[in-house]
Amino acid sequence: MFGPAFIVLLTTSLQRGFKAGVSFAVGVFISDALILTLAWFGLSQFLGADPRENIYFSIIGGIVLILFGAFTFFKSSFERKENPENEESQILLDASEYEQRSSSKLWQHFFNDAPSRSYVYVLKGLFLNVMNPGVWFVWITAMVTFGSTYAGKAGPVALFFGSTLITAFMFDILKAFIAGRLKNILKNKFIHRLNQIIGIILIAFGVYLIINNFYDLNQLIDQINL
Predict the structure, then answer these.
(1) DSSP conformational letter for 45
(2) pLDDT of residue 113
(3) Domain that holds residue 23
(4) Residue of 34, 18, 210, 215 lying closest to 135 (CA atoms)
(5) Angle CA(19)–CA(33)–CA(64) in degrees, nearest 5?
(6) Tens-digit pLDDT profile for residues 134-158
(7) How much is the pTM?
C-alpha cells in the first residue's frame, strides 16, 4: 500500500542502498506480524474497533510522522552545515566514520536517513509502521473478517496470514532492489529534491492524522467535490 512506510522504504533504499532497504523491510515485516499476533489474541482491542478513531494513538502517530518528515525535509541543510566545503561528500561518507563524528546525535540515525547499522533500519521500519493507525485498522479488520470465517481453526488462519506477510515482504524487497539500482543512476541533487518532497508528504500524513481527530476531513473533501 501507498503509505508512510512505503515512502520511507523507497527513500532509504535510494539513499543507503539495497541492504538498508531490506533491513527497513524486515522491521515492517516484524511489526505487521506483531500487530496480527495481538489482533489474534484480542490484545489490540484497547485501541477500539477502528484505531484511526483513537485520538491519543492518532496524535502520537501524527507527531512521529511529522518528525520523520521534518528531518527528511531539512536533511540537505543539515549536511551543508556539517560540511560546507563539499556538500556531496557527506552523502558518500562511510557509515562507521559518520557514526564516530555524530555519536552524540543518535537521534539523527533514527529519524534521519544517516548511514547506520542494519538494526537501526530494522527498528526504524518497525516503529514507523507500528505507529501508523491505518496499518492497525487494515490488519485488525482482516483478522476479524477472516478469523470469523474459520473460527476455531488456527491452521487456515495461520496459513492465510503467513502467506500474506511473506508476499508483502517479498514485494518490499523488490521495491528496495529497484530503488537501490536507481541510486547509482540518479544524481545527488535530484535525491536532495526528492527528500524534500517525501518530507512534505510525511508531514502531510502526520497533520492529517492529527486534524482528522477534530474534524472529518473526508466529509470536507466530499463537500468540496460537490
Answers:
(1) G
(2) 53
(3) 4-225
(4) 34
(5) 70
(6) 888 888 888 888 877 776 677 888 8
(7) 0.73
